[in-house]
Amino acid sequence: MGTRPWVAACFLLPALALLGALVVYPIGYSVYRSLFDASGNGFVGFDNYQEVFTDDRIRTALKNNIIWVIVAPSVATALGLIFAVLTERVRWGTAFKLVVFMPMAISMLAAGIIFRLVYEQNPERGVANAMWVGIHDTFSEPAPYPGAHPRPGARLGADGGAFTTRAAAAAASPVALPLVAVKPVDLKGAADAVPAREVAGKVTGTVWRDFTRGGGGTEGVIDRGEKALKGVKVEAVKGHRTVATATTAADGTFTLPAAADGARLRLPAANFAAHYNGVDWLGPSLVTPAIISAYIWMWAGFAMVLIAAGLASVPRELLEAARVDGATEWQVFRRVTVPLLAPVLAVVLITLMINVLKIFDLVYIIAPGASLDKANVLALQLYQSSFGTDVNQGVGSAIAVFLLLLVLPVMLVNIRRIRKERQR
């Protein structure tokens, strides 16, 4: 109020100097540097910007940035809205908000390390695959002896993972089906194998691990101490038709009906298929959605807290009036709550959009080397172009200027919204 301009300038000078040194000068120098080649000596004009739009890696990064800007802020804001509304109706809402907001206290680096372990391919280490494999195995029974196969010379031919006897089986003549390469862990509690007994009019046989610890024993013969393979499915096949099936008992023996007489015996591939190992979350096709999920885990709490603060200021009289007029809870939410929260939702959405345009840490840490190009984003490509193996700070500066141009429209929309709110 009545302060002389030079006095105001003296107070603003330190802040303006700091702003100029940390913001204005770097922006100006980046624009200048983007017009020169990798050495910084040769003027190339807009060639670096042309490379930004023609290089395959940078185009992939741009495509991924578009996916990030559309998906991550929208899903995080929607989850924040749902959490904020639902937690108003439960007694333990404060505790729930604390749990959801807690990831915000973790740095991007730490979150990246956490989710790199979560998405680990090995189900014994990766939480995501441990859950996925558990669900899969609930509805699809795993193979009893993955990786097992007949002993060479056992007169069994391989066909697409299945093994079929070369000779037809005869009733009352037991068939020996010796297997090797059975993992010890799959034989826990297994009983000793016994030779199958002859049964008139029926085909019998034994499936066992033809291996004696310490060596010795006779190939193709059930020696003392050799283990039975329980639960192996055996099929009798005539031509291309399965005429009978049986499953081996605890002692490895099986019995097929008279229809199997003269048929060849087949051990289906399902007996020996490798265990389901889950989803390749960090493979080329799923790496970007997986990283976006990690980002949403971190920032949904931020959206929830801001929206909950806006929800607390919503006049309860309007909500009650809508209910008195006969509106359902869904109509109250869609027609009253969401419109009243529109300014807050816009703040959250715009803030997250600006944030994802600069995303770097999560992608750099979570994506493995084989999938890094598929998960690439502009901020990461800026780093790789400026300081990576093929250093070209001209291209890196061009990417930085391009990122600035992408952020500016979002910032201008946010500034206009703030000015309108001040005028109300």
Automatic annotation (TrEMBL):
It is a multi-pass membrane protein. Keywords: Cell membrane, Membrane, Transmembrane, Transmembrane helix, Transport. The keyword Ribosomal protein does not apply. It is found in: Cell membrane. It comes from the Bacteria. Residues 62-414 form the ABC transmembrane type-1 domain. PANTHER family: BLL4140 PROTEIN, DIACETYLCHITOBIOSE UPTAKE SYSTEM PERMEASE PROTEIN DASB. This is Sugar ABC transporter permease. It comes from Streptomyces stramineus. The lineage of its organism: Bacteria, Bacillati, Actinomycetota, Actinomycetes, Kitasatosporales.
